[in-house]
Amino acid sequence: MTTALPKIAFIGLGIMGSPMSENLIKAGYPVTGYTLEQEKLDRLTAAGGAAAGSIAEAVGDADVIITMVPASPQVEAVSYGPDGILENARKGALLIDMSSITPQTSVDLAAAAKEKGIRVLDAPVSGGEAGAVEAVLSIMVGGEQADFDTAKPVFEALGKTIVLCGPHGSGQTVKAANQLIVAVNIQACAEAVVFLEKSGVDLAAALDVLNGGLAGSTVLTRKKDNFLNRDFKPGFRIDLHHKDMGIVTDAARNVGAALPVGATVAQLVASLRAQGDGGLDHSALLRAVERLSGGQV
């Protein structure tokens, strides 16, 4: 089948990458994926995509290359070196990194790619696994307007709120702020849950009415059932939020912004991880509050 839509290479098919790549296939894009786990490649081919045996094979004739990997070291690992994206992508290709990494890593990648004639956008997302599945992600983008315009239809297959925030690295800066707000919000909700339960209030009823007022939030809407059912199956792992809190506290220090509450929550996330809960969903901040309150976890 011939198609006028650009060919997409998708590198990284994890909790976020798998549903995102499937939404691109549903939108009619030819998608070739590469990841380390065979079962994720099998899932992609079952959805109508093609599996590649290497990064070089995946990106060779791609018009658009999307990376969705855990952190800066992985972005660097897939981008640089003889087997990486920059050495194997064709000139003029558009590399869209949708991972959440340090703003500086994005700036450096854009500069290195420019020397190879490859255009780059940093485009981290918010919305978690549910947002990825439902194609309603918020996408914050850094880079050139022309490249953003080229990528817009691709973004529209993945998300709802799509905004160019400024030059290279800006998307990552906004994402860092997003993760700060989300972590503090989850922590506040977790403290409220423990307070309500210890007070003997009907938790489901309380969270419903709270969510209808000024205390309501997307976090509470998305995570209410996690709190009620103590279901911490990862949509977004504590390990990754720990990484993100490191990014935002470091970036804030570099620009001279004080994050007193953010720093405290960063420590609470770190303590939860140290207690072995790094693989759980970030709503498991509730477990940290329960421990501090003398509850059984």
UniProtKB/TrEMBL annotation:
Keyword check for NAD: yes
Entry's Gene Ontology molecular function annotations: 2-hydroxy-3-oxopropionate reductase activity
Keyword NAD: yes
PROSITE patterns: 3_HYDROXYISOBUT_DH
SUPFAM superfamilies documented for this protein: 6-phosphogluconate dehydrogenase C-terminal domain-like, NAD(P)-binding Rossmann-fold domains
Location of the 6-phosphogluconate dehydrogenase NADP-binding domain: 7-166
Residue span(s) of domain 3-hydroxyisobutyrate dehydrogenase-like NAD-binding: 169-288
EC number from the UniProt entry: 1.1.1.60
Keywords, comma-separated and alphabetical: NAD, Oxidoreductase
Top-level taxon in the UniProt lineage: Bacteria
Pfam families to which the protein is assigned, alphabetical: NAD_binding_11 (PF14833), NAD_binding_2 (PF03446)
Family label: Belongs to the HIBADH-related family.
NCBIfam families, A to Z: tartro_sem_red
Name of the protein described by the UniProt record: 2-hydroxy-3-oxopropionate reductase
